[in-house]
Amino acid sequence: MLALSSLTTAAAREAEKRLTAYPRYFSNVFMEDIDQFAASTKIGSCLNPSQQGHKLVVYDVFPEAMVPFKEAGATICTSPGDVVMRSSCVITMLPSNAHVLQVYQGEGGILESVKRGTLLIDSSTVDPSIAKAVAAGADKQGALFFDAPVSGGIMAAASAKLTFIVGGNSAEFAAVQELLQVMGSRAVLCGPVGSGQAAKICNNMLLGVSMIGTAEAMNLGIRLGLDPKKLMEVINSCSGCGGFASKLMAKDLSLAQDAANHSQSPIPLGALAHQLYRIMVLSGWADKDFSSVYEYIKEEDK
């Protein structure tokens, strides 16, 4: 039988002030056993298992944070250890490296009270080394640890369509996948412990660069007199597709650079992309697809 519970932090401002304080825990009973689900404020509230009809067992360092859950029928615990002792699976989602280390390895933390055979899943986004450190501690206690950060945001959480990016023991992944599907639509095993965090960091780097690039393109288009709605329609239907030679990408980025200069629109990432594609062209990659920039970077890194 599976069970689910949750742990969430207070508001971000409080979390930053209290790095050594425990975030709030929620435990929810699914079937007959009890697992633990731990979540950060915004996504955690969307992932609240009680919304699926599950019963909750709750602990929080801020008593007022537990009031809505108590009113909804949750059982209130007196400590994190009280919650952990009730759990056969623990899922945490916390704001930072420090929070994860404190909750798992700190005084009164999860690893002090965890039972042998407990499944531990951390859905925070943290450094891969943190996941490996927690996994090592869990292994000493006879518990099994997976890192499983999420992708999709609050809307995906609310509709149970999150993607979990997982690192851990492949032989045990089926059980983890079954549990995560209570909260998401997909769980991808990327490799051993730490791989989920590594993949999430790479994905977020791409997301950040892409978002800045999109912002630069939109700003440039608006300064050139385009209707932003029409430009977004073009971007959504045309960008990100292959089948375009690197020399043509370099040429078009040169045009964008010129337009940006004339309109006094800053495009730092666009300028860097332009320089990279120019170097590719001069290095014999002119006729290769512009998506081959990945292969070019790999070659240059050797």
From TrEMBL:
6-phosphogluconate dehydrogenase NADP-binding domain location: 47-189
Domain 3-hydroxyisobutyrate dehydrogenase-like NAD-binding: 194-240, 243-296
GO cellular component: mitochondrion
Catalysis: reaction(s): 3-hydroxy-2-methylpropanoate + NAD(+) = 2-methyl-3-oxopropanoate + NADH + H(+)
Pathway note: Amino-acid degradation; L-valine degradation
InterPro entries, sorted: 6-PGluconate_DH-like_C_sf, 6PGD_dom2, 6PGDH_NADP-bd, HIBADH-like_NADP-bd, HIBADH-related, NAD(P)-bd_dom_sf
EC number: 1.1.1.31
Pfam families assigned to the protein according to its UniProt record, in alphabetical order: NAD_binding_11 (PF14833), NAD_binding_2 (PF03446)
Any one GO molecular-function label of the UniProt entry: NAD binding
Active-site positions on this chain: K200
Gene3D superfamilies found in the cross-reference section: N-(1-d-carboxylethyl)-l-norvaline Dehydrogenase, domain 2 (1.10.1040.10), NAD(P)-binding Rossmann-like Domain (3.40.50.720)
GO biological process: L-valine catabolic process
Keywords linked to the UniProt accession: Branched-chain amino acid catabolism, NAD, Oxidoreductase
Family: Belongs to the HIBADH-related family. 3-hydroxyisobutyrate dehydrogenase subfamily.
Protein name (Swiss-Prot/TrEMBL): 3-hydroxyisobutyrate dehydrogenase
Organism: Timema genevievae (Walking stick)
